[in-house]
Amino acid sequence: MAGHLREEAMKSTQSLVHQLAAHASETPDAAAIHGKVDGVWKTLTWAEYFAQVREVAKGLIALTACLGGEVASSCLQGNLDQAKQAITDYKDIFEPGQFFLELQENGIPEQKIANDHMQQLARDLSVPLIATNDCHYVHRRDAAAHDVLMCIQYGRPRNDPNRHRHDTDAFFAHVLRRVDWSNDLHFQTRTTIDTLDYSGDGLNQGSKVIIACAGPERRSLPTELPTSLVLPEGFRNPRVVMPGVLAVEGKPCTARHDGELSRFCRAIDAGHPLNRFTMIVLVDDAEFTARTRNNFLWVTFTRSNPASDIDGIESFIESKHWGCRGSLVIDARIKPHHAPPLIEEPEVTRRVDRLAAPGGPLAGIL
Description:
The protein has helices at residues 2-11, 16-26, 46-57, 70-76, 80-93, 109-125, 143-154, 168-178, 196-199, 260-266, 286-291, 293-302, 306-309, 346-356, and strands at 31-37, 40-45, 62-63, 99-104, 129-132, 185-191, 206-211, 236-242, 245-249, 279-283, 310-312, 315-318, 321-324, 328-331. Helix 10 (260-266) links the parallel strand 9 (245-249) and strand 10 (279-283). It folds into two domains: 2-132, TIM Barrel (Alpha-Beta Barrel); 168-331, UbiD C-terminal domain-like (3-Layer(aba) Sandwich), CATH 3.40.1670. The chain has 14 helices and 14 strands. The chain is globular, with a radius of gyration of 25 Å. 37% of the residues lie in helices and 19% in strands.
């Protein structure tokens, strides 16, 4: 049922809630969903299912999501009536004060348009606003709790050596020992998924790259810089991030395609000692990038658009397939079209800490 209803929603101009309410009103006794209740299979009618949805909604706080969300996308299409209808539907199903119109700031021109509409819709329909941006867990100390949640999700004990886990070093080591850059890279271009709207040039202009490798290990991974290392002119301060990964500082990027990535790769041949590293990342600050795993992941994968910011040593195109025979090189310098870095303001941090202190209104929550 859920998949069927989602397909209807994608084809319809009405919100998912509106269609669910319509089913409950027009065919209340028809079968809507089959599921287990207390271990027993039971069929819920549309009326029963909608009542269950409304009951569950009482305990939820709902947001309208990013540019791909129903309300924002309607705004960008200029269909404000559709946006208003969706807001009205969601406002009706959630408790007062628990449904919010979402504002984000990410440097995308379309986001400014959506934000302007959201603010006007909030005034017109008396719906509160909330400012957000995409994140998973905020602090490294939260990783253990996140790990426990994954164990619950997959139904596996934490001491199971074969369970799903987020072990950054083990993951990269497994891939980098086995990957064949001449064969294992597969690009998806002109698309929009999650952070691509931030690293790409605009909506539907981003890309993804799939690294699909398997089999026996091909190489060992270096952990130290080669002696007497000479970098191409304009590049400096190489730092080992983890086995097989090197961060190198480049000149500040002042144009979207300034040629520095290509120049770096063309200056290095197959015999250069840099080729011992499977992955090289060009960055603004190598020391910062190599300091923590979080820094490396943040810099590398939010400041690079694969289709335009990946190159390699001895790269080639063969039958529309791109690959390289040497190191893969990622340009993760800040580009002019990127949103500015999100930096905590010390005074705001202190104020939040006071609210979260024992006896404060956010104690036990933050």
